[in-house]
Specification:
CATH superfamily: Amino acid/polyamine transporter I
Shape: globular
Protein name: Carbon starvation protein CstA
Domain CstA N-terminal: 3-160, 163-280, 296-426
Strand content: under 5%
Subcellular location: Cell membrane
Number of strands: 0
Number of domains: 1
Radius of gyration: 21 Å
CATH architecture: Up-down Bundle
Helix content: over 70%
Transmembrane segments: 6-23, 58-76, 82-104, 125-151, 157-179, 186-207, 227-243, 264-288, 308-331, 359-380, 386-405, 412-435, 441-462
Order of helices and strands: HHHHHHHHHHHHHHHHHHH
Family: Belongs to the peptide transporter carbon starvation (CstA) (TC 2.A.114) family.
Structural class: mainly alpha
């Protein structure tokens, strides 16, 4: 229990210390107009309040990641707490803040456009394909996961196909309609339910004195389970997630002032990490060792979510908590498809003011996602995890390049970016879904590839600084009378 509570305190302290440093180092410009005003279109660029943007951002980035990932990460023992705390403060929150703020400085641009500007035109095409792959996988995973939870909650009285169809119908509406019609209106309510359910489960674990394992050298990694690189891909959304880089630009287009960035981007990542801590602790405490492994094999993390919720909160409270968990992936799946629509529209320069223009882009994505739902969830999750963390590497390198050109402390992004580059490369070289090489060969290969790519980064960074690439969009001719 001490390790668990101390970890949550560290996350909160990290927001008020390292988070404040990151904001000061980046350099907020409160007087600079944001895309919510300079590009206002009533669809994607709509000014919204800080509290509303914060809750929307939390729901956008959360999904099932900070729940399913930590539950599966609980198999590694209390070492998962270390990764959630260190990863969230020094990697995930920095990643989210930089992608959000750099997007604000560049007309609400998404990651492919930012990669093209700061890492080269070739990377724009690579990242565009990579981001779309990730978003379609996320959208599919976040259809399958809540559908399974709903099916279990209703004891199978509604067919799985009908549940999937209803979720897809909602996704279509949320993807096409202006952001303030569904997302801006209902997400604050959903966000409150999410926070209440997480706090309820965490609070009951403390009140009931649930024996949460403490971090010791003896149980650092139970049964000698190797933690590198699998732990850092299994627990993603609660510590560091490239999916967030696709979501932050959605809110960068609705943020009123740059000064709100720490609460919206850095702060909501810390909030997500606290949720991840609660579910990792629950997985370790209530389903220790073999039992947890058996439950994962029997029904996946969805079974554990239901068991934990009902055990901690009773039948009624547990059901409400499960509903909160169901809402979580749905409110990330819809913005995954929305983000994909916006990325494609930006890439092909296709205006989105008319609903039919949005529809022509959205329909093919949903068709692909429907086909992917026929694939086993565990296989989808493995590909999602690798694509997710690889996207985080790209986003951190974009942030490092921006800071290098600006003459600021680029190490805050480059160090976690290089670490995750090593982890993701090792995984894809070693994993069965990748090249299937022995671990020692994979580690050597990943080291060589990482050193080579970091060297390329510094070479490109020096040239970019010499070329004086503009760090932000010029808004000197913006007409302030357009403010809405």
């Amino acid at each position: 229990m001490i390790t668990f509570l101390f970890s949550i305190v560290l996350l909160i302290v990290g927001y008020f210390t390292y988070g404040k440093y990151i904001v000061k180092m980046f350099g907020v410009k409160e007087e600079r107009a944001t895309p919510a005003y300079t590009s206002a279109d009533g669809v994607d660029y709509v000014p919204m309040s800080t509290s509303k943007n914060s809750l929307i951002q939390l729901l956008n980035i959360a999904g099932v990641g900070p729940i399913f990932g930590p539950i599966m990460g609980a198999l590694y023992g209390p070492v998962a707490f270390i990764w959630i705390v260190v990863g969230a403060i020094f990697a995930g929150a920095v990643h989210d803040y930089l992608t959000g703020m750099i997007s604000i400085r560049n007309r609400g641009a998404h990651l492919p456009e930012l990669a093209g500007k700061f890492l080269g035109k070739f990377m724009k095409h690579v990242v565009n394909a990579f981001a779309l792959l990730l978003l379609v996988l996320v959208g599919t995973v976040f259809v399958s996961a809540p559908a399974g939870l709903l099916y279990n909650l209703m004891n199978g009285w509604m067919a799985m196909g009908i549940i999937l169809a209803l979720i897809f119908l909602y996704y279509i509406l949320a993807t096409l309609l202006p952001i303030d019609k569904i997302i801006g209106r209902f997400y604050p309510i959903f966000g409150a339910l999410l926070v209440i359910s997480a706090v309820g489960i965490g609070g009951m674990m403390v009140i009931k004195g649930v024996p949460i394992p403490e971090l010791t050298f003896a149980n650092l990694h139970p049964d000698n389970i190797p933690i590198f690189p699998l732990l850092f891909l299994t627990i993603s959304c609660g510590a560091l997630s490239g999916f967030h880089a696709t979501q932050s630009p959605i809110i960068s287009r609705t943020t009123k002032n740059e000064s709100q960035g720490r609460k919206i981007f850095y702060g909501m990542m810390i909030a997500e990490a606290i949720i991840a801590m609660i579910w990792a602790a629950a997985g370790m405490a209530l389903f220790n060792g073999v039992t947890l492994n058996e439950l994962l094999a029997a029904g996946g993390p969805a079974v554990i979510v239901s068991e934990v919720s009902i055990t901690m909160l009773g039948a009624v409270g547990g059901t409400l908590a499960v509903i909160g968990v169901i809402i979580l992936p749905i409110t990330s799946g819809d913005t995954a498809f929305r983000s994909a629509r916006m990325i494609i529209a930006d890439y092909i320069k296709y205006p989105q003011a008319k609903i039919m223009s949005r529809l022509w882009i959205a329909l093919p994505m949903f068709a692909i996602s429907i086909a992917l739902t026929q694939i086993d969830f565990n296989i989808l999750w493995r590909y999602f995890s690798w694509a997710n963390q690889s996207t985080a590497v790209i986003a951190l390198f974009v942030g490092a390049m921006y800071l290098f050109i600006a003459g600021k402390n680029y190490w805050v992004a480059l160090i976690p970016g290089t670490f995750m580059l090593m982890a993701t490369t090792t995984y894809i070289l070693n994993a069965a879904i990748g090249f299937g090489l022995p671990m020692n060969v994979s580690l050597i290969g990943a080291t060589v590839i990482s050193i080579f790519l970091v060297a390329l980064f510094f070479n490109a960074a020096v040239k970019a600084r010499a070329a004086q690439i503009p760090l932000e969009e010029d808004i000197t001719n913006w007409d302030s009378t357009r403010t809405i």
